[in-house]
Amino acid sequence: MKIFGAGARPGQPSVYHHRVLTVPNVLTVVRFMGVPLFMWLVLGAREYGWAVFVLAVMGGTDWVDGYVARRFDQVSELGRVLDPAADRLALLAVGLTLVLAGVVQWWYFAALLLPDVVLGTASLFYFRNHPDLPVSRIGKVRTAFLLVGTPLLVLSKLRIPGVEVYLALAWIFLVLGLLGHWVAGYNYFWAIVRKGRGVRSERRTGEPHGGRDGAADDGGGRL
Questions:
Q1: What residues have CB less than 8 Å from 35, skipping those under 6 apart?
Q2: Does residue 50 have a pLDDT over 80?
Q3: Rounded to 5 degrees, what are φ and ψ at 4?
Q4: Over residues 182-193, mean pLDDT
Q5: Which pLDDT tens digit goes with each residue over 61-92?
Q6: CA distances to 77, 176, 218 from 10, in Å
Q7: Which of 24, 90, 96, 126 could form a disulfide with 65 if both were Cys (CB 3.0 to 4.6 A apart)?
């Protein structure tokens, strides 16, 4: 089974549609809703077991919505924005929650936040909006590592056998995820700069910049 680009039909590139009510978009909204629920379970109820379950559902919908979108031709313009936004919100909100709960230190949240702040600033400077870049393979791997490491870290707070193993595995995945986060951020930054220089130059000359051909990349999302 393919992990990345699952559901893609060989020889039939996906096309972005303008539909709003699609199964992938509904699943992405479910992922958004899981963020405040996770925060309440950890900070309010201290129900770490249920918090792990919510993270597992959120991680599952991240894969399923991409599969359904590509397999059943439900890739949409709205989904291009919602899906990566849900990923970023989840990673940052979960990181902040774990800091507030005393599970990790502030440096972990800062390591997640700083690349996004730099990329957001560069995007506003060059595009005054979203740079509309395809999601890179390393960006997908980064998200996968963080989505696996985080629930393992929460599991280490439970009084269950093998806590030390969960904790060790959690930090292996999280460190790899953070390294991937910074490498992906570096690559995205220079992609923004290269594309942005052309956009700013064409703004000065009054010529329109390029255009999309409507074909989706294999990730079905944006930076």
A1: 58, 89, 90, 93, 94
A2: yes
A3: -105, 135
A4: 94
A5: 888 888 888 888 888 888 888 888 888 899 99
A6: 21, 31, 11
A7: 24
Q: Is the dihedral of CA 9, 13, 15, 16 positive or negative?
A: positive
- What are the tokens at 145? 């590592």
pTM of the complete model: 0.79
Sequence letter at residue 122 = A
Q: Which of 176, 50, 217, 76 is nearest to 168 (CA)?
A: 176
Chain position carrying tokens 């919908």: 61
The Cα 57–Cα 34 span in angstroms is 8
For 55, the token pair is 């993270």
What is the pLDDT averaged over residues 36-45?
95
Tokens coding 1 = 């089974």
